[in-house]
Amino acid sequence: MIELLKNRQIILSLIILGGLIFMAIFANVLAPYDYKEKNLQNRLQPPSSEHFFGTDNLGRDILTMVMYGARASLFVGFSVVIVSLAIGVAFGVLAGYYGGWLDEVIMRLTDSFLAFPSMFLALAITAFLGQGMENMMLALIAVEWTVFARIARGSTLDVKTKGYARASRWIGASNTYVIIKHVLPNIISPVLIMASLGIGNVILAAAGLSFLGLGVQPSTPEWGAMLNAGRTYFTTAPWLMFFPGLFIMMTVLAFNYFGDGLRDALDQKMKSFELEGRF
Amino acid sequence: MLKAENLHCVYSSGLIKTVKNRAVSGVDLEIFPGETLAIVGESGCGKSTLAKMLVQQLAPSSGEVFFEGTKLTGMNWKNLRNFMGKIQLIPQNPDDVLDPKWTVERSVAEPFVLCGGFSREEISENVDALFAEVGLSVEHKPRYPHELSGGELQRVVIARALALKPELLVCDEATSMLDVSVQAFIVAVLKEIQKKRGLGLVFITHDLEAAKAVSDRVLVMYAGEIVEEGKDVFDSPLHPYTRALLDAVRYVSLDVVLQEDDRALPDDFLGCPYFRMCRERTGACKEPQKLRDVSGRLVRCWKV
Fold first, then answer.
1. Chain A closest CA to B116's CA: distance in Å?
2. What CATH code is carried by the domain that includes residue A173?
3. Which pLDDT band, with edges at 50, 70 and 90, does B287 fall under?
């Protein structure tokens, strides 16, 4: 863990992410206004000392909305990745560990999901299920789990060839024991790297879907939806799109940075690294 | 103690498993309690395949393995588990046994945990005793495999193998990855343990010096078959292959460099496996050869 903090990429991204998460959690304390507060007299105000990020077409404070928007974006990002990770790792480990027909079935299933461009698949699912945050998250999970299934399967195969998993079997361990005690701890680092990169992707995809009007309703503050709402005023009031866009970019960048840093730290120093029980 | 009868192993490969590769064919052997049996032969002669079949990690294509009269081959996993502790394999590469994310202490304790019925204190005592037995100190216990040297790792592997009180240790090139001085040390550790515990030892190696030093009996393999078996094989080799093998060690000359291409024999060839390479071959060598008893030595060559 201390080793991780020596990585400059990780520190920088952790500072940004920490700030964003802090902002999201304490939005109700930090935000200067109420996000529902409409003030039509103040509509489309440029950034000023009263409204740092300006106001939107309904006179709502953009800084406030960006802060509350972080809640929705981060919530979607984390929960989609956590659920996808659980599903993907479960399927991937089973496929890799047991092999045979189970492997074939699971891998052909992931192939069929991967056969479509991910955004298209998510679009199709949300269009089918109807718009709304829950449906958007379902669509994103359907896209995201395959990534984890692939990674988990590959790493599990790697562990299997190393032999220590088999060595436990030979002294009487059950398959469940081997999977929990040997396979999972050894595949978790590539999976975590993918997860940290995945959060950024999911936030971006969620913003994209919201921008297209398929995700979060415009009344709830969400960065993608804000972009969508600000579209009409882009030439006259660009701050409507600039600030949510900036925050999406920062968040995605920070998660990607974190993932990259994590990969560098884990890959190179794998050998001299004591990961057990650290995550 | 452990008896193998007519063991065959054929690896099939190719799209419809048409490419057959005879790794081991028709091996009979018996290991007696407290005895050290060395199995020698060049790379690819089927030593490791034989070892895996002996410890039941690999199901033979045909043939049977008995442990103290009980047939192990074909036994289901549940029943086989009771025997797994009795026969332990020490592989060439410690990676095959030790989980890189586990401390070596935890790895050595694993057999006790899996076995059940041990309290925390008992496990810890047993692990300490095993560490002492293989000559490792307490300070090695909390380390991870990457923090130990090859020799230390191999000792950890031996300690783990001893946990279930085995009666037979099969060392599959257990010292091949180590340098010479450490090799000698590991062999000494193994012999010491054997003396103390009275267990049988199968020592698979291509290091003839080591084989000679430790073994009571030697078994020479070539192309998946036993060509010679007995005591003092190295002092008075009878089979032409054994002689060539010893010569190859004594003087490295181009004459005895064994070429891969020349070894390949047609699948239906039933004669002496050493036929292509043998300088003393005659037409009669194309006939199937049986292991013959020549004054207490088993030799697969009609000429001796």
1. 10
2. 1.10.3720.10
3. confident
Residue A144: half-sphere exposure toward Cβ, Cα within 13 Å: 32
Q: Does A176 touch chain B (CB under 8 A)?
A: no
> How far is Cα of residue A177 from the mean position of the Cα atoms in its chain?
30
| A156–chain B nearest CA distance, Å | 13
Q: How far apart are the CA of A33 and the nearest CA of chain B, in angstroms?
A: 50
pLDDT mean for each 10 residues of chain A (279 residues): 73 90 87 78 81 82 88 90 95 93 93 85 85 87 92 92 84 88 89 88 86 78 84 86 90 88 68 46
Match 């207490």 to its residue by tokens.
B296
pLDDT for A275 equals 47
Residue contact A167–B164, C-beta within 8 A: no
Measured between CA atoms, the residue of chain B closest to residue A162 is: B96
Q: How many CA atoms lie within 13 A of A147 on its CB side?
A: 25
CA distance B30 to B195: 20
Q: What range defines the domain where residue A171 resides?
A: 56-270
CA-nearest residue to B165 within chain A is A171
The predicted-structure confidence for A94-116, as pLDDT tens digits, reads as follows 999 998 899 999 999 999 988 88
* B4 or B265: which leads in pLDDT: B4
Q: What mean pLDDT is predicted for residues B118-133?
A: 92
The residues spanned by each domain of chain B are 2-215, 236-304
Interface contact A164, partner B, CB < 8 A: yes
Chain segment B264-276, per-residue pLDDT in tens: 567 677 788 887 7
Number of Cα atoms under 13 Å in the Cβ half of residue A225: 21
Is A1 within the bounds of a domain? no
Spatial neighbors of A186 by CB under 8 A, at least 6 apart, are: A155, A159, B99, B100, B101
Query: Which tokens in the block code for residue A160?
Result: 């299997």
**Cα distances (angstroms) measured from residue B204 to each of A62, A96, B211, B228:** 75, 32, 8, 15
Range with the poorest average pLDDT among B63-72, B136-145, B164-173, B275-284: B275-284
Q: Is A271 touching B (CB cutoff 8 A)?
A: yes
Closest-approach residue (CA) in chain B for A163: B96
What would the mean pLDDT of B2-12 be, rounded to a whole number? 87
Q: Give the CATH fold of the B2-215 domain.
A: Rossmann fold (3.40.50)
Tens of pLDDT, residues B40-63: 988 888 888 898 888 888 888 888
Whether A149 is in a domain gets the answer yes
Count the domains in chain A.
1
Of B57, B96, B164, the CB nearest to A164: B96
What are B's interface residues with A at a Cβ cutoff of 8 A?
A: 55, 57, 81, 84-85, 89, 91, 93, 95-102, 110-111, 114-115, 144, 146, 164
Distance of alpha carbon B200 from alpha carbon B132, whole angstroms: 21
Return the pLDDT at A96.
Answer: 94
Q: Is residue A18 part of a domain?
A: no
Residue with the larger pLDDT of the pair A216 and B160 = B160
**pLDDT for res B277:** 74
Domain assignment present for residue A278? The answer is: no
